[in-house]
């Protein structure tokens, strides 16, 4: 078996300059995002970054006091097995857990990550989800590979990732089947949403304003 090493490929300059601003009077201004990817060539990496840009543009438009900052990109983490196990446990219990319940125990490796949102690009065919990690401020966002699922087809993966990041920002599902936070989502199976992000609803916008104004 090939021994995998943890490689911090990129720690952006922005992180260095803003890290001291992250926590101010117990209010989180920036949400630091750590992306864990099996390989740097993974085709979900650029949609992940597009989704971060989408959210930052949206938050800026709404003049809100938060943004998503890419803190680190971890390629082929030595801790991949722990994250895959945790993702699988959560996925198996999907629908039977609510965010008020503790859920399966988060692995130490995840708790140790310095960042508020961990985007894990899983190698499993699980449906993507976002999960609040215990009593921490941390969200675990697992993005699976489900090429047979139209909702998660590669042309729409940027919307799937943006949807899960929306949960990590505090949004819940919308009954509007054409909105980004939809569930169920009719829009994902009709028409092409390639390169285009689905809209937020007025409720989403006011919820974000409540949370981050
Ligand atoms: Zn959702």
Account of the 3D structure:
The chain has 213 residues and is an alpha/beta fold. Helices cover 30% and strands 18% of the residues. The protein contains six helices and eight strands. The strands form two sheets. A six-stranded mixed beta sheet has the order 1-5-4-6-8-7, with helices on both faces. Strands 2-3 form a two-stranded antiparallel ribbon. A hairpin with a 2-residue loop joins strand 2 and strand 3. Mean pLDDT is 82; it is low at 1-26. It binds zinc ion (ZN). Residues 163, 167, 173, 183 line the site of zinc ion.
Largest sheet: 6 strands, mixed
Mean pLDDT: 82
Strands, total number: 8
- How are helices and strands ordered from N to C? EHEEEHEHHEEEHH
Q: Which small compounds were modeled alongside the protein?
A: zinc ion
Uncertain runs are 1-26
Number of helices: 6
The percentage helix is: 25-40%
Strand arrangement, largest sheet? 1-5-4-6-8-7
Distance between the termini: 50 Å
Whole-angstrom Rg: 16 Å
Task: Provide the structure class.
Answer: alpha/beta
Outline: globular
């Amino acid at each position: 078996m090939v021994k995998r090493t943890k490689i911090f490929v990129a720690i952006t300059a922005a992180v260095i300059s803003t890290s001291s601003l992250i926590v101010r009077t117990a209010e989180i201004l920036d949400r630091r995002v750590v992306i864990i990817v099996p390989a740097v060539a993974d085709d979900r990496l650029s949609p992940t970054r597009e989704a971060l840009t989408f959210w930052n543009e949206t938050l800026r438009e709404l003049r809100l006091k938060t943004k998503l900052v890419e803190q680190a990109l971890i390629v082929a983490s030595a801790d991949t097995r722990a994250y895959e196990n945790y993702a699988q446990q959560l996925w198996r219990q999907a629908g039977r857990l609510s965010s008020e319940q503790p859920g399966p125990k988060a692995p130490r490796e995840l708790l140790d990550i310095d960042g508020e949102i961990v985007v894990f690009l899983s190698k499993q065919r699980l449906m993507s989800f976002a999960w609040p990690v215990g009593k921490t401020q941390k969200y675990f966002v697992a993005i699976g590979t489900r090429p047979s699922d139209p909702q998660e087809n590669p042309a729409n993966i940027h919307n799937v990732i943006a949807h899960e990041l929306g949960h990590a920002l505090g949004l819940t599902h919308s009954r509007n089947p054409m909105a980004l936070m939809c569930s169920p989502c009719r829009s994902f199976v009709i028409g092409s949403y390639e390169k285009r992000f689905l809209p937020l609803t007025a409720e989403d916008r006011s919820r974000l304003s409540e949370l981050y104004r």
